[in-house]
Every structure is written in C-alpha cells, then in structure tokens.
Amino acid sequence: MKTVIFTDALTKQYHHKTVVNQLDLRVPEESIYGFLGPNGAGKSTTMKLLLGLVHPTAGRMSILGHRVSPENRLSILSATGSLIESPAYYGHLSGQENLRIICTLKQVPEKDIDRVLHIVRMEDQKDKKVRQYSLGMKQRLGLAAALLGNPRLLLLDEPTNGLDPAGIQEMRELICSLPADYGITVLISSHLLSEIDQMATHVGIIDKGQLIFQDTLSALHEHSRSQLLLHTDHDRNAFNILERAGIPVRWTQDALFLMSMDDQTVIRAVALLVAEGIGVLRLSQQQKSLEDIFLDLTGKQVSL
Fold it and tell me: Which tens digit of pLDDT belongs to each residue from 202-214?
C-alpha cells in the first residue's frame, strides 16, 4: 500500500516551545486516517505544516510521493484539499457564487462546482445566501470548496466541531464515502475517539506534540477493548480479594474494573466476592475512553 503522507522527525517550535516533536506520520493511500489527541496536542499545527501554512523547524515531509520543497509546494497543494478551522464566506452571496470565487483562486474550471455540490448533497441549496445556511450547511460548503479540483488528498481539522447530531451524521457519511467512491485519502483530526471510531481505517494519537500510537483502527481497539465495571458495597476490599486471587482488575477512587470479559473469569470473580461477604450490586460493560487509552499508552492521565 502506498504512503500518501510521510513525515520524518517533523518538528515545529515557537519561541523555544516544541509544539510538534519528531513526528513520523505514515498515512496509507485511500485510507481515512484519524489524527487523535487532546486540544493543544499539536494536531492543527501538524496540518498547517503539511499545507505549508507554517514552516517546520526541523524534519522533512513527503506528500503524494513527492518530497515537499519550496519548488514543488504549489504543485503538491493543487492535488490537496483542506478544511482547517471554520471556513470564511461572503454571507451576501450564494453558495454557488462563493464556490465560483474559490474556483478563480484555485484556477479550477467552474464546471467542477456541480460535481462537488453533488458530492456534498447541496444542489438544492446552491442558490441560497450563505448567511441563511446552518452551521452544518456551511461545513458542507467548506467540504465542497476543499473538493474543487478533484484532490487526491483531503485534510480536515475537526470538521464536526459545533454540529448537531444530524449534522455530525451527514458529515460522517460524506467523509466515509470519499475513499471508496472518489479515491481520496482523508486525514481527519479530532479529540473524540467515538467520532474517529465510526470513520477511520487508521489512527495516529498525538500527545504534547509527540506521536504515541500509530496503527490500524483494529489495533487501537486492542488498547480500547471493553472492560466490566463492577459495583460492590466495598470496592477497596473487593479489589484486594480479586488481586490476591490473580484476577485482572483495576481500581480507582471511583470505580472497580474487571479487565477480562471471559465468562469463566467473571463467574469466578463474582463467586469469590460473594464467598468473602462482598455485596455485588451490578456489572456493566464499558468501553475505554480516550483518557483511559492515553493512560495506558503514556502512564499519565490527560484532560480533553
């Protein structure tokens, strides 16, 4: 499988503060690569580096098989679309008129407008003034603008931010259709594991500028596999009993977790606690949160 984005020790510093630190990204062709991390982790800066909006302090980048340099930067960008932060529009103009302006800036034929409006399902809203658009419609118009010129690579920075559930679902469906239907590779940043979980084929996790995990989504699920939340009338004693018995268990101030979903392990744990006089109130299945995964990967808790 070809690598569409390749970075080698990519680094960016601002006033001696390292925002992106020795980043080695590997984004496969026609994948949806979820770029995960808490706010301030360096996701947006990385995307701006890839787009040439800021210059790296050190390291190198290759995009679409070409090493990025001042000489070929524009030709690479012509095959790349992006939606970074909130797109700006002329509110007194229609969606179609805004796209015409972008066609001029990108030197793309205006006949491409009908194609991108069809992709984002906005043919019926193209003549409406943008100031009358909902936030979800504005995001879809931004995606349409990014798709002008038929790019092979699309960079999306938190594209579902601020959308209502219906808007999130629409945007998710659009993004998921791009690799299979149009051969586009998508790099999408988010601080929500649940959002990436429903779209991505590959995942990279960044924390304080450093890449701490990079693999397929299924490999991430090995870290985020479900666990059982065990409610008892005395969690501390229950933890000590289970740990002495060699049953995989984790205890925090607020909760007790059985780390194995195996039926026999669960039966044994409950029977052991009951025999020791611990009241088992209930068991509930829980998926690890992004914070839990960070804790597993880095040994420290983070706040999203």
Answer: 999 998 899 999 9
